[in-house]
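User: tokens in, sequence out, please.
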């Protein structure tokens, strides 16, 4: 199946806040309200195709991937990435702890909710496979930047 064409995958519009954070960290100017208005966001989840279109529009072209825990380690050089959870919410994946072998990382480091636009130090949550498993089915966006 081509990347980004997962039928039925929808994402909560909170993704725009995360993309705005990543874009601003790269010096890109983004007005999330204007972007949301252009795309007709009403608060309802949107398709993966819409998420990819918005990412490209704001200067963060991305590809969708579905990985298992072991496949996460291959992303070390491609971070940050955007994780898409089972409940359609998102989080910024910033790094890993331990691992690096075929079993995958010991834990992932995701940005604490609420730190998206805070200047200064970012708080990261460390989630191991048992913590993340019930929340995440493997979907994430990797940015082509």
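Assistant: Sequence out:
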């Amino acid at each position: 199946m081509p990347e980004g064409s997962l039928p039925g995958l929808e994402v909560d519009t909170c993704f725009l806040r995360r993309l705005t954070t990543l874009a601003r960290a790269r010096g890109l100017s983004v007005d999330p309200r204007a972007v949301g208005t252009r795309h007709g966001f009403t608060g309802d989840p949107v398709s993966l195709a819409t998420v990819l279109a918005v990412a490209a529009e704001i200067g963060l072209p991305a590809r969708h991937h579905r990985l298992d825990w072991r496949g996460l380690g291959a992303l070390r050089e491609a971070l940050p990435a955007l994780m898409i959870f089972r409940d359609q919410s998102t989080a910024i994946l910033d790094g890993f702890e331990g691992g690096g072998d075929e079993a995958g990382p010991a834990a992932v480091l995701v940005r604490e909710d609420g730190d998206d636009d805070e200047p200064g130090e970012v708080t990261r949550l460390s989630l191991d496979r048992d913590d993340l498993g019930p929340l995440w089915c493997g979907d994430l966006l990797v940015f082509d930047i």
